[in-house]
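Possible regression after last week's pipeline update?

I re-ran a chain I had predicted before the update to compare outputs. Posting the input and the new output here so someone can diff against the archived version. Not blocking, just want to make sure nothing changed silently.
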Amino acid sequence: MAKPPATPPTATPTMLRRVNAGKVLGVLTRARVMTGTGLIEATGLTRATVHAVCNDLISMGWVVELDPGRTSVGRPSRRFEYNNRAGYVLGVDIGASKTTVLVSDLRGETVAKAGRSAAGVKTPGERTEIVHETVTEALASAGVSNEQVLVAGVGVAAPVDRDGNILVDDEFWRRFDGDLAKRLTELHGWPVLLENDANLATLGEHWRGGARNVDDLVVLLAGERFGSGLMDSGRLLHGSRGGAGEMVFLKLIEGVGDTHGIARIAREKGTAAVADPSVETSLRKLADGGEVTAEQVFSAAAEGDEVALGILQDIAARTARVIATVGILFNPELVVLGGAVAEAAAALLPDLEKHLAGYTSTPPRVAVSSLGDAIVSVGAVRHALNYVEQHALDLELGCRPS
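New output (post-update):
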């Protein structure tokens, strides 16, 4: 026998007040300044309700009331503004070789930035200690206390499931501390939202990059290893264990064979060319102890070095196969190359587009990110702000108005 439908909860005055507060706060987070009349029009609430809710939000610290100004006729309208300094969020990018921390206000404006190298790190615990030190430095630079931080978005170069657990199925992924979120919360007191770095890069590009109006999007982090974040109709794809967009399948793709990114391939090919005495290249003058950096390869190519140009042509052909495969699988409108290599990768675009036309009849548009090596930390800030906006009425502000 079928069960009768559950009776919906009775709407209480407290519940209605909370719903109305959420409506008003939602409008104010997107607007700069709103009058009471503007809020009435935007929310459909009565004047009395809007003013009562704004008074509540002011007392909580989420909203400030501005000087109404002068008017020649009638009573001036009350003016309200979202308090973007009611608290702060952190955007943390924990890369394989560097940690970057952004301190941001609640409109997403950067207040301070700090970065530290992770070169020579041998254990996940050592990496977490570097994160802790970088966070401490960034907060000190911003003049922000742990109590003022509402939440931190944190990106790692590994899949992260919906419960915030890092997958450790791959040797590279095991470089990150499985208790990272718990440890940071113990050290600083604020909650941590752990997420895959490419997913955060996609949020960042969609929010502040060149993909603001693109809802079918792939962002490829292409530095040391390829990683991708996928957005379909404006929704970030996550997967059952956080593995949507993982690029291990590249080991099966002819002409690719591994997950090595643009920077790694450029460095390895450049170093190999310098090690061969029969090869004439200006890279030999730039090499430090026989080692060549990806930046040096791109720079030499820009100056017309034939060997460096050949390396970039090989990288373009290989990267085109990666993009074509992702394009065929997910049919995005735009693929963005992101990360520290993005600016240099602009030199690859003409060759990339030529190869793509031969691999698929529906090639996506390809661009490089303008966010540079901040793309993950910017996305981490957006991730943290989403949390604040969804849970604002449940958060205790570190500095409430007296």
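Follow-up from reviewer: compared with the archived run. The chain has three domains: 14-82, 88-205+376-394, 210-370. Marking as no regression found.
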